[in-house]
Amino acid sequence: MNRESTMPRSFGAAVAVLITALPAVAADGLQWGPTVNGLRMSVALSNDATKDGEIRVTLQNLGDKDILIPLGVIVGNPHLILLKVFLKTSDGESQRVIYTGIGGIGGAVEPLTMGLRAGEAYTMSMRLGLYYVLDRSEKLATFIKHRCQLWVELEVKENQCPNPTTLDSLRRTLPCWYGKVVSNVLQLPK
């Protein structure tokens, strides 16, 4: 199976971030959240995160079958809207974080999916500047300068799997992953 052909061409431009909820350090040095339906996730921030850095999310398929993972939509550019960023302040208060990358939808919308072979891991980067902390009315890059916890969740319901007839012949053959996977939790600032 050709790895590149399982993803849309524009996917390489996508930026994603992962955060892991229950830390488990692997030989690769990443911390991971729990495995759900064969998939696990890790999140980390780039070194320049408080400027306009990146959230880096790694997905790993620990199952024995290749899978198709819905991540969001392509509206001109890829938007990883199924990857949600969560925050909790040092006093335990949850904060709502919104993705501001899509202002409006006009034109064709395609599903953003990623094919992941059994045993394979793939890291995506999302621009930190595209996230806003709604409850505090500030950019995420500013908010994470204060003590907090950050993690990422991917929740895909079975009805969110794309219609196979709309996919190319290779992705059409992959079973769609669905479930809710949570990354490790980052303690910030580092």
Question: Would you give an account of this structure?
Answer:
Helix content is 4%, strand content 39%. Strands 5, 6, 12, 13 and 14 form a five-stranded antiparallel sheet that branches. It has helices at 140-143, 169-172; strands spanning 39-45, 54-61, 67-75, 77-79, 83-89, 94-95, 97-99, 110-116, 121-127, 131-133, 138-139, 148-156, 179-182, 186-188. The N and C termini lie far apart (39 Å). By secondary structure, it is mainly β. It contains two helices and 14 strands; from the N terminus they run E-E-E-E-E-E-E-E-E-E-E-H-E-H-E-E. Residues 1-25 have low confidence and may be disordered.
Task: Write a compact overview of the structure shown.
This protein has 190 residues and is mainly beta. The protein is built from two helices and 14 strands, in the order E-E-E-E-E-E-E-E-E-E-E-H-E-H-E-E.
Number of DSSP E strands = 14
Q: What is the count of helical runs?
A: 2
- What best-fitting shape do the alpha-carbon axes yield? globular
How large is the share of residues in beta strands? 35-45%
Order of helices and strands: EEEEEEEEEEEHEHEE
What Rg do the Cα atoms give? 16 Å
Largest sheet, in brief, is: 5 strands, antiparallel
- Give the rounded overall mean pLDDT: 84
Distance between the termini: 39 Å
Low-confidence segments: 1-25
**Helix content range of the residues, please?**
under 10%
Structural class per helix/strand content?
A: mainly beta
Summary tags:
single chain, 190 residues, mainly beta, 5-stranded antiparallel beta sheet, 39% strand, globular, disordered N terminus
Secondary structure blueprint with pairings:
Layout: E1 39-45, E2 54-61, E3 67-75, E4 77-79, E5 83-89, E6 94-95, E7 97-99, E8 110-116, E9 121-127, E10 131-133, E11 138-139, H1 140-143, E12 148-156, H2 169-172, E13 179-182, E14 186-188
Antiparallel strand pairs: 1-2, 2-9, 3-4, 3-8, 5-6, 5-12, 7-10, 10-11, 12-13, 12-14
